[in-house]
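Protein chain data
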Amino acid sequence: MASGGALGLGYLGRCRGVEVFEKLNRLGQGSYGTVYRARDTENGEIVALKKVTIHAEKEGFPKSSLREIRLLKRLRHPNIVELREVACGRQPGSVFLVFEYCEHDVGALLDLMERPFSEAEVKCLTLQLLKAVECLHAAFVIHRDIKLSNLLLNNRGVLKLADFGLAREFTDVQKPVTLNVVTLWYRAPELLLGAQSYTMAVDMWSVGCNFGELLLKRPLLPGKFEEHQLQLTCALLGTPSPRIWPGLERLQHYGTFKLPENTYNNLGDKFPDMPDSCLDLLNRALTFDPTKRVTAAVALQHRWFQEAPAPQEPHNMPTWKEHRNETANPRANPVPLGVGPGKRPVPLVARSAVFAAAKKMKSCVF
């Protein structure tokens, strides 16, 4: 046993040494650490082991990892990844986060699937994502990086929202906050236009983009840079005006981007086989004015989930061959943005790759 106090983690108490975990294979790597699939030799459980990278001793423990630990210790929900413990390495300052393990991340799974998810399967996944986001927002937490590669799925069909390195507690809507958050393809228009403050609605825009991607089996708005991202958004949803988005003209970058003159919403053309109820929910999530954007709690009650086909039960979801290793997972080591068609943008933080054998927890505990 070792103490986490030297790194400012004293509230965690004594930590097990990382030597009790047998590394099986590497799942991925990012700027904030390397993630391994590992076995707990004391109980045989398979876990995901994330090594936290500390680039220089003077920098101390990374704020993103500290934030991730604190939030995940506070939040408990069946659709939020479980941080089991923090383990200490042999070297001073060596720290590992121990997560439950899931066999898939939804983004890589979608890339490898021969067919898209069915409407019933999309309902199942979207419901679980909305439940996770509802839990976060009820606790006044904004995730700020919801994307398919941060959605984990185990072989029982249970979805887990992961990677809380960019998450923050929402305490003051008027306080200036970081704008360079959320991977570009999932970034809300108020962020792209330089809003000086934002709300939990930025997560709901990301949910809408993920929802559309599950239906399409490809990214909904794959922009190459910020102006292009806005251009694609306006081409799909229509170009906003201060009439439909009060306060738009006061945003920092309003008028600086060249946007198409489009007054039409083209979601119906993008999803010709989807019912009106599905398009309605998608439109509510992808509403330009963040004050009018649907909340997770309201979205969970939407009529699309009540209509046929009924949402697939998680335990009846298809099963797939496990892909979470470096040779099979095309997103384990992402390439730089713009290097070729169809490539995914580099994530802003390392994925907290993770998770299986999920404990059944009955409610969101703060």
